[in-house]
Structure formats: structure tokens, C-alpha cells
Amino acid sequence: MPGDKSTQSTPLILVFLKSPVVGSVKTRLAKSIGAEKATEVYRVLVERQLQQLPNDWKIHIYFTPEEDETFFREWLGNQHTYKNQATGNLGDRLKAAFQEGFRDGFSQIFAIGGDCPYLTKDYFREAHNKLNRNHAVLGPAQDGGYYLLGLTHMDLDPLFDDIPWGGPEVAMITRQRLLMQEHIYEELPILEDVDDLESWQRAQDYLNQLSS
After folding, report:
1. pLDDT digit string (tens) for 26-45?
2. Domain total for the chain?
3. How many Cβ atoms sit within 10 Å of the Cβ of residue 25?
4. What is the C-alpha separation between 178 and 33, in angstroms, rounded?
5. What is the CATH classification number for the domain harbouring 108?
6. What angle, rounded to 10 degrees, do the helices at 35-51 and 197-211 form?
7. What is the pTM for the complete model shown?
8. Spatial separation of the C-alpha atoms in residues 115 and 16, rounded to whole Å
9. Backbone φ/ψ region at 86: left (φ over 0), alpha (ψ -120 to 50), beta
10. Alpha helices in 52-169 (DSSP H)
């Protein structure tokens, strides 16, 4: 059932997470520090990201695999809404989650992962302000992907179909398709996801500076 008026005015964040099973997360990083340590890093990054979400926004955690809901609730708490990721590639899963959010009455929806330690509350506020005056907001990642995508209701197929996910052209193609649809959009600053040893070392330096 569509959300009420107050729900519609509240931004929704879709957080896409994988169960932190050794050998299945941060596999590039694992080549340098080992699979167990890389899994610990993933958990640290996810916990850091959730701490940086605006307290008054709605949070839907889209997790995989589907049988791990109890684990995620025990790990991250029962204050969030947990949903299974759809089947298919990342584009299929993103599109299904956005569609569900729009059906529920949300008018501003943001999708993120859990591996960008620089994505703070300030960036979410900036993204919210940009989406108040645009159709979309894009947070480009240094590797050519994106760490955040915010949308108002629009045709989702061009943004998620036939995208070379994981490659260096994801953000560029997304920009092109937004322009082809004549959608007005703005961008956030380029930030870095943690994927390999060098990016993790930079992230550690950043996090250590915050705690010092």
C-alpha cells in the first residue's frame, strides 16, 4: 500500500549488502591481505556506513543471500527494514528496489553500497538538496562506477539495463542515459570505494585521522 503523505516526504536509502562470508566479499583486497582479513574490513566498512546515514531517513537494507535475514538483524539491528535482493544482475536488483520504493510512495530514493567510508551525513544532505531541484543525483566513484544514485520517479529501464557492471564506464553511461532522457541531474564529488590494498590503506589513514 502506498505510504502516507509523511512517508512520501521522507527520503529512502536502499543499502545493498552481501553476507560477509569469507571468500565472497572484497575478493580483490583479499589477494593482498587474505580472505579473513578482507571480510573483517567489509564488516568495518558496512558498520561505518550505517553510522553515517541520516537518522530521520528511512532505511531499507537489501541483502543477499535470502536465507541470511536473521544474521543481518543480529549484526546490524532490528531498527532497519530488511528485504531480499531481486534475482539477476546488479541492474535488475537496483531497478526492482527502486520500483518497490516508488510503489510505496517515496519520492526521493537513494541507492548505496557499504564500501565507501567517505560517504558521510554531509554528503547525504547535499544529495538531498540536489534532488530537491533535479530529477537525479549521481555520486561518481573513482574507479568509474558510482557510490550513490538518487532518483525521483522516472523511467528506470535505461539507467539499469545493459550496463557493464563492475567496469570503468558505469558512471559515464549512466550520465549519458540521464541526458538522453532529458533528465536534469547534478553530481556529488568523486569519492573512492575500498576495493584493493591501496584504497584500504588510504581509508585507514582517513579513519585514523577522524579518531585522533
Report:
1. 999 999 999 999 999 999 99
2. 1
3. 22
4. 39
5. 3.90.550.10
6. 50
7. 0.94
8. 10
9. beta
10. 69-76, 90-103, 121-132, 157-160
